[in-house]
Design brief:
It contains twelve helices and eleven strands. By secondary structure, it is an alpha/beta fold. A seven-stranded parallel beta sheet has the order 3-4-5-8-9-10-11, with helices on one face. A two-stranded antiparallel sheet has the order 1-2. It has a two-stranded antiparallel sheet with strand order 6-7.
């Protein structure tokens, strides 16, 4: 496929692959947010590449392997133009769909990378993330094993997800970390305390996931609108019950900016994330996900929308007023990742 580059690019890490400044999060294609139209999802992937998106993000736990298989077909068809990121470390059980465990043992990592390569149908993974850090397992040990995978030619670059600033520095001392992925949005800014400064200092690219607050920042989700079946968002504290009712009021500044500009709330939220790159002098490549070519085009267009100082000031207080945690069990993440 011939790409039509419309996105600026940035490097992954100090001297890694160049990617569009906005990537694509494929998680929702396989599960979590209700049923998918796989034909439209594949068309959305193709359209993303056409618009200059080159960083595509998946994980072995998304759809219990289905997401890697689905994305893998697209990647193989466009291998020279795609930078593929996947992850290991979150463990699921077929008999218990709600179970989430964490395994960073060397044996597990070696099995996981081989399994991902088979599902993806490729010879090397461009960017391989530790999805979550296992308590009690030093991050230095985990990164040491990942460095072995680089030497073996199974992965090209090393990434970490949901780590603290101290853990990022400790990991980088063992092997260069290309990217750190964590939730970062108008609703989630705790990473700005120490993780972002560490990334700036070390020349590590920041990959914000859920830059649209799992869809809440688009303004299309209202309290009680999330289905109980097939959509995990009804269980997220911020998106349900009284919290959702309070948080929806926080979207007022986004609505005002969107109306004045003739753009969408989602574009305002994404433009804010891109603005943080300039504030912190940091390489940033958010990975919003969508299963719609229309939404994709809106998301990509947001990467070049520049918010004014007054608009940024109006958005500044939002994060401090958000009701509810990111997850029901914050131990599932790095609760103290700031």
């Amino acid at each position: 496929m011939t790409t039509t580059q419309v996105l600026p690019t940035t490097a992954l890490g100090a001297d890694g692959a160049r990617v569009g400044v906005q990537g694509f999060g494929a998680m929702g294609i396989s599960e979590f947010y209700g049923a998918s139209d796989l034909v439209e999802s594949r068309a959305t992937l193709e359209k993303a590449l056409e618009l200059g998106v080159t960083l595509f993000d998946t994980a072995d736990m998304y759809g219990s392997g289905h997401n890697e298989e689905f994305v893998g077909e697209f990647v193989r068809a466009n291998r020279e133009n795609v930078v593929l990121a996947t992850k290991f470390g979150l463990v699921r059980k077929a008999e218990d769909p709600r179970y989430r465990g964490i395994d960073n043992s060397p044996e597990y990592i070696r099995r996981a990378v081989d399994a991902s390569l088979r599902r993806l149908g490729i010879d090397v993974i461009d960017l391989y993330y530790m999805h979550r850090k296992q308590p009690g397992v030093p991050v230095e040990e985990t990164v040491g094993v990942m460095a072995e995978l680089v030497a073996q030619g199974k992965i090209r670059q090393v990434g970490l997800s949901e780590v603290t600033g101290a853990e990022l520095r400790a990991a980088h001392a063992v092997y260069p970390i290309a990217a750190v992925q964590s939730e970062w949005s108008l609703f989630s800014r705790d990473v700005e305390r120490t993780v972002v400064p560490a990334a700036v200092e070390l020349g590590i690219t920041f990959v914000p996931y859920s830059p649209l607050g799992r869809g809440f920042l688009t303004g299309t989700i209202v309290p009680g609108s999330i289905p109980l079946e097939g959509d995990v968002r009804h269980g997220f504290p911020r998106l349900s019950g009284d919290n959702a009712a309070r948080n929806i009021e926080l979207l007022a500044p986004l609505r005002a900016i969107a109306e004045a500009r003739g753009i969408t709330l989602a574009q305002v939220a994404l433009a804010w994330v891109h603005a943080r790159a300039g504030v912190h002098e940091l390489s940033v490549a958010p990975i919003p996900g969508t299963r719609s070519r229309t939404r994709l085009a809106e998301n990509v267009a947001a990467a070049t929308i520049v918010l004014t100082a007054d608009e940024l000031a109006a958005l500044e207080p939002i994060a401090t007023q958000v009701s509810g945690d990111r997850y029901v069990d914050m131990n599932f993440t790095q609760a103290g990742r700031e």
